[in-house]
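wait is this the right file?? whatever heres the structure
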């Protein structure tokens, strides 16, 4: 026989709370617009969440403004300054600026 039973679960072991704690659900639909924009973006991009980060950020900011979740710095939630370029750093540790000149193609002779 199993130790916990089919419906009793694992008796004697205390449940572990979620890392971020408990937050209220949006029963009053205060952030529905932001949620729908995010979900629409996900559907239109084939569920590639990285392309919908700005909508995810708006939704989380809405929840924080309405006390539906604890207020946190967005960088702690995985968001960095969206104004920064998404290019790898060069040897000096600075971001490379995109060149306006077209790159030459090297052709093997």
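ok assuming it is, sequence goes like this
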């Amino acid at each position: 026989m199993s130790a916990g039973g089919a419906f009793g679960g694992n008796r004697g072991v205390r449940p572990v709370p979620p890392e971020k704690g408990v937050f209220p659900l949006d029963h009053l639909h205060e952030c529905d617009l932001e949620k729908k924009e995010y979900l629409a973006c996900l559907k239109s991009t084939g569920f590639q969440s990285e392309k919908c980060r700005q909508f995810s950020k708006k939704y989380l900011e809405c929840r924080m403004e309405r006390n539906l979740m604890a207020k946190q710095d967005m960088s702690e939630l995985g968001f960095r300054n969206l104004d920064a370029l998404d290019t790898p750093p060069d040897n000096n540790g600075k971001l490379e600026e995109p060149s306006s000149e077209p790159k030459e193609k090297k052709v093997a002779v």
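The CA atoms of residues 60 and 69 lie 8 Å apart. so i think its the right one actually
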